[in-house]
Amino acid sequence: MAQWVLDTNSLIQCIARQSRYHDLWISFLDGRNTLCVSTEILAEYTEILEQNISATFAQLALDVITNNPYTELITPWYRFNVIKADPDDNKFVDCAVAANAKFIVTEDHHYNELKNLVFPQN
């Protein structure tokens, strides 16, 4: 089982049943993977889902995430501020580092900055 952090844009994509990324969501629901989140990430999920879908859907999705035994709530104690182009994305990086997550799932090109960093290998 891998621990990963899911960027908001990827969350929206993988929840949809018709999405080619839906198996990612299912892998979280059935325990093949663990979703690592922080309170900041949950707040962003709520905000964006409310804006793009509905408040009802946002609440349902957050209930699934927060009540799933394969969710790990992380409290990052350090801010790395690695992503300069979009500092709001740093909450996902900080959570991933604090959780020792294997992946950050995203299609956001701002995360390409991480490819230039040297992190300890597992």
How would you characterize the largest beta sheet?
4 strands, parallel
Number of strands: 4
Spatial order of strands in the largest sheet: 3-2-1-4
Q: How large is the radius of gyration?
A: 14 Å
Give the CA-CA distance, first to last residue: 15 Å
Number of helices: 5
Mean pLDDT: 89
List segments where confidence is low: pLDDT < 50 over at least 5 consecutive residues.
none
Provide the succession of SSEs.
Answer: EHHEHHEHE
Q: Residue share in helices?
A: 40-55%
Gross geometry: globular
> Strand share of the residues?
5-15%
Computed structural class = alpha/beta
What does this structure look like?
- The protein is α/β, with parallel strands linked by helices.
- Helix content is 43%, strand content 13%.
- It is built from 5 helices and 4 strands; from the N terminus they run βααβααβαβ.
- It has a 4-stranded parallel sheet, sandwiched between helices.
- The model has no long low-confidence stretch (mean pLDDT 89).
